Amino acid sequence: MHLMKYDPATGEEKPYPSEASQYRKYHGAIAWLYNPYTGGKRDPRDIGSDVLGHLVEPKLPTDKDNRTPPTAPNTNGSSAAFVRLWRLTSGGSSSNDVVSTDRRKN
């Protein structure tokens, strides 16, 4: 049994109950935004694929730092480009989407 030190929803210290299965039973379906063993923020991609934190594992005994640094936000615009591409190919639309179609011939 591995005891959690941080609340997976808020990142605050000392969640109750402090064992993952007990926490899920007590709180129900709540997104795990923080790693309950390190207190660090979880990567948004990990949250998207594992909202309830079933794949979050306790920190290894070799980890020296108790808290992991937060991940940097995606600043290269690839997420917005993906959403625009998805909306174009799936029939979805948004008035905020800007798509450039340059059809000039050289």
The pLDDT mean sits at 75
> What is the helical fraction, as a range of percent?
25-40%
Question: Span between N and C termini?
Answer: 66 Å
Count of DSSP helices? 3
- Taking all Cα atoms into account, the compactness measure Rg is 20 Å
User: How many domain regions?
Assistant: 1
- Beta-strand portion reads under 5%
H/E series, N to C? HHH
Write a brief structural summary.
This protein has 106 residues and is mostly helical. The chain has helices at residues 20-27, 44-49, 78-90.
Give an account of the 3D structure:
By secondary structure, this protein is mostly helical. It has one domain (1-91). The protein has 3 helices and no strands. The chain has helices at 20-27, 44-49, 78-90. The longest helix is centred in the last third of the chain and has 13 residues, at 78-90. It starts with 19 loop residues before the first helix and ends in a 16-residue tail after the last helix.
Give the topology, please.
Layout: H1 20-27, H2 44-49, H3 78-90
Tags for this model:
mainly alpha; 106 residues
